[in-house]
């Protein structure tokens, strides 16, 4: 959950953007770029498509920033724009199969630790890929991005209880999938909910 100070600062940035301040918009992009990419990847599961969707969503958000009600938080509104952008991109074109380029290690890092992190990331990404889309989005927004169930409900257009259920079932399925060896496939007798 974001701090009250962070929300006040963010609302000031939104007002500045609405008044035409490009630097303020850059600050909003900086705040949300990484988490937007993670969210887009959870929907599209393709690095190139996720990058395209994030870029398009930020452009669309800038074009429509006046639609954000005064005092409303930017994050949930932006994630609705991003989700819509991702779904439109997925509908428009068949997703291509690309191998992801591994994140390169910066100098001075431990290659064994970097390899372990990449294997863990691959295992979790594969397990996330097995989940139904709404579970994947809900658990990503809740566990990785720190949004509340109320905010997730608003972003995804679902009830708060449904958000809680999606996160619960996603976590349970992820535990099972990861225990199954991280190959992204659960035991045939244990279907993903």
Structural key phrases:
8 helices, Arc Repressor Mutant, subunit A, 193 residues, mainly alpha, disordered C terminus, 2 domains, Rna Polymerase Sigma Factor, Chain: A, 69% helix
Give a verbal description of the structure.
The chain is built from eight helices and no strands. With 193 residues, the chain is mostly helical. The chain has two domains: 93 residues, RNA polymerase sigma factor, region 2, helix turn helix motif (Rna Polymerase Sigma Factor, Chain: A), CATH 1.10.1740.10; 82 residues, Arc Repressor Mutant, subunit A (Orthogonal Bundle). The protein is globular.
Q: Briefly, what is this?
A:
This protein is mostly helical and 193 residues long. 69% of the residues lie in helices and 0% in strands. Mean pLDDT is 80; it is low at 94-101 and 182-193.
Distance between the termini: 27 Å
Q: Can you tell me the CATH architecture of the largest domain?
A: Orthogonal Bundle
Number of distinct helices? 8
CATH topology of the largest domain: Rna Polymerase Sigma Factor, Chain: A
| SSE topology string | HHHHHHHH
Report the sheet-strand fraction.
under 5%
- What is the gyration radius calculated from CA atoms? 18 Å
Overall pLDDT score: 80
Low-confidence stretches: 94-101, 182-193
Q: What's the total number of strands?
A: 0
Helix content: 55-70%
Using the alpha-carbon principal axes, give the shape.
globular
- The top level CATH class name of the largest domain: Mainly Alpha
What is the total number of structural domains? Answer: 2
- Within CATH, the superfamily of the largest domain carries the name RNA polymerase sigma factor, region 2, helix turn helix motif
Largest sheet: none
């Amino acid at each position: 959950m974001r701090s009250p100070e962070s929300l006040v600062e963010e609302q000031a940035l939104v007002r500045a953007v609405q008044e035409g301040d490009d630097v303020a918009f850059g600050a909003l992009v900086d705040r949300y770029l990484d988490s937007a990419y993670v969210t887009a990847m959870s929907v599209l599961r393709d690095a190139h498509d996720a990058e395209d969707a994030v870029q398009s969503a930020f452009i669309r958000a800038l074009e429509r920033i006046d639609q954000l009600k005064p005092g409303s938080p930017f994050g949930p509104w932006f994630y609705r724009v991003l989700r819509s952008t991702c779904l439109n991109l997925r509908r428009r074109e068949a997703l291509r199969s690309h191998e992801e380029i591994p994140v390169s290690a910066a100098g001075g890092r431990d290659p064994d630790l970097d390899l372990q992190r990449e294997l863990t990331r691959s295992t979790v990404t594969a397990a996330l890929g097995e989940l139904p889309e709404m579970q994947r989005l809900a658990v990503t927004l809740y566990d990785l991005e720190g949004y509340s169930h109320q905010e997730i409900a608003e972003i995804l257009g679902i009830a708060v209880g449904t958000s809680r259920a999606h996160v619960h079932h996603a976590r349970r399925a992820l535990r099972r999938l990861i225990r199954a060896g991280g190959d992204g496939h659960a035991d045939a007798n244990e279907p993903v909910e």
